[in-house]
Q: What sequence folds into this?
């Protein structure tokens, strides 16, 4: 079995890491450069950096902060937020990113996925999907209707519905060349009650690229459930790491004790 990855997520707003509940009511969580250095030392497998207001503010991502963050880590770094063209992708890769994550721009222009994969390779292109569960229209006598999730963009106080079915969008994104998917449950985000396992399992089982679970972690057991019950290839978390509820070595120890293969770093600080 492949080693499972533990990935801290830095949601950056105005140069500071923040964390909210369902994308609003943000709390300050620290300096992204300092946090990146801590997570690198603790043995994180990768790091995700999102400039969370770049798309909604219709501005470019903060290249200087990305460059400073990249200099602090010796693990793969994924950068997203405000990336609208393949030239933007190139700028982030030049700034030190190993992968670029696209969400809003991919929905508005799916060709961007294919163009990015052709220019930089699918391994550099991450499709980020923000999905929310929607009513299926089933009545009390119809219990067999499968759940449905829709894709949203510009997530925050005023997310924009796209009408896209999340499962079909994941399939199409991979067909266009995305090499990885970050799947975030808008319903679970910041709740610390666990991932939306049904959403996670449904998409993980229909695509042939790694799926990273995002949204809702409150404990190491939530991560375990995401990997085992949700069939995720990697798990992403923010609040539990930023506010030091758990450390990365603690999470990895919990998973290893339950038979999940993880990369252990000798001398990693807890």
A:
């Amino acid at each position: 079995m492949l080693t499972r990855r533990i990935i801290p997520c830095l949601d950056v707003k105005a140069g500071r890491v923040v964390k909210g509940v369902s994308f609003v009511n943000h709390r300050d969580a620290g300096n992204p450069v300092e946090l990146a250095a801590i997570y690198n030392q603790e043995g994180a497998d990768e790091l995700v950096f999102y400039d969370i207001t770049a798309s909604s503010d219709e501005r470019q991502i903060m290249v200087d902060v990305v460059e400073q963050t990249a200099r602090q880590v010796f693990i793969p770094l994924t950068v997203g937020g405000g990336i609208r063209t393949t030239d933007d992708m190139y700028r982030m890769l030049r700034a030190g990113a190993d992968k670029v994550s696209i969400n809003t721009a991919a929905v508005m222009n799916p060709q961007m996925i294919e163009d990015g994969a052709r220019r930089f390779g699918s391994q550099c292109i991450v499709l980020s999907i923000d999905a929310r569960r929607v009513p299926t229209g089933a009545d009390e006598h119809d219990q067999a209707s499968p759940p449905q999730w829709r894709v949203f963009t510009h997530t925050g106080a005023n997310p924009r519905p796209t009408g896209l079915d999340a499962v079909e969008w994941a399939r199409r994104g991979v067909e266009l060349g995305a090499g990885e998917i970050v799947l975030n449950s808008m319903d679970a985000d910041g709740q610390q009650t666990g991932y939306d396992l049904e959403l996670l399992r449904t998409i993980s089982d229909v695509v042939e690229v790694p799926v990273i679970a995002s949204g809702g972690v409150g404990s190491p057991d939530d991560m375990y459930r995401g990997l085992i019950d949700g069939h995720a290839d990697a798990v992403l978390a923010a609040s539990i790491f930023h506010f030091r509820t758990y450390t990365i070595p603690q999470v990895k120890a919990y998973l290893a004790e339950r038979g999940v293969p993880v990369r252990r770093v000798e001398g990693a600080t807890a």
Q: What stands out?
A: The chain has a mean pLDDT of 88. DSSP finds ten helices and twelve strands in the chain. Residues 32-42 form the longest helix (11 residues).
